[in-house]
Write a structure and sequence with these properties.
Length: 248
């Protein structure tokens, strides 16, 4: 995996900003864009992977991976094996909400199984960064093919973390905004359906009031009685009456 061009151009900055726009892509699509941009924007980054996690509602619950993406198939395999084991640097980042990094995987002793997976695929250094924005938690892992590749160069280690944090923050914001948008949209649709249903029922009540010579309360009581005895939803019954189809 040769290192990609690592210059934060105006175009890259624009694309990073677009990550936070609602409706730009799905969760997996956003994760793929985050990994792609990381390879292009972060000096020394030869590949990247990202994972979206559930945020537990109870302290007794553990975060669960919901979606993942990687810039290369071999990195996807590294992540999949780590998630299957249930431990490793990504899990530590999720549990502590703090970034971790290894300047030389060959000397890494904290996660021997993950280190072996990385070395077999030519990875010599990595850093993993978390970002939580309710209800979304995203981790972004950057990989280098040379020792200290992610902590050297013109931007320095602090610059790498700034870029990585910016990418993962924008990615998690996009997914959080999308979830909130979907929830608001779903609520609006439900309210609209409720308003339309109420209007149909009111029209049916008016028809019954005219036909039976009764008041609104009596007409509604009759609608409810017929609905219950015929096992038909009140709205469906009202629609039949308004549509001049009778009372079934």
């Amino acid at each position: 995996m040769p290192p990609a061009e690592s210059v934060l151009t105006d175009r890259l900055a624009f694309e990073i900003a677009r990550l936070g726009v609602v409706g730009e892509s799905s969760d997996v699509g956003t994760l793929h864009r985050v990994t792609e941009l990381a390879c292009r924007a972060v000096p020394g980054c030869a590949g990247a992977s990202s994972v979206r996690w559930s945020i537990p509602q109870s302290p007794d619950d553990r975060p669960e991976p919901l979606a993942s993406a990687a810039s290369h198939p071999d990195l996807a395999e590294i992540v999949d094996r780590q998630l299957a084991r249930g431990h490793g640097p990504i899990h530590e980042v999720v549990n502590t909400r703090r970034p971790v990094m290894s300047d030389d995987v060959l000397a890494e002793t904290r996660w021997p199984e993950t280190a072996a997976d990385m070395l077999r695929r030519g990875i010599r250094c990595f850093t993993t960064t978390p970002h939580a924005k309710e209800p979304v938690l995203v981790t972004l892992s950057l990989y280098g093919v040379r020792p200290r590749a992610l902590s050297s160069g013109g931007h320095g280690e602090q610059g790498q973390h700034v870029l990585a944090s910016l990418l993962v923050a924008q990615g998690s914001a996009a997914m959080s905004n999308s979830l909130q948008y979907e929830e608001v949209h779903r609520t609006a649709v439900q309210l609209q359906e409720a308003v339309e249903s109420r209007a149909i029922v009111d029209q049916a009540k008016g028809i019954l009031m005219h036909a039976l010579g009764c008041d609104a309360d009596q007409a509604f009581a009759e609608l409810r009685r017929i609905s219950q005895t015929r096992h038909v939803k009140l709205t469906a019954l009202a629609q039949r009456i308004v549509g001049d189809q009778g009372l079934l």
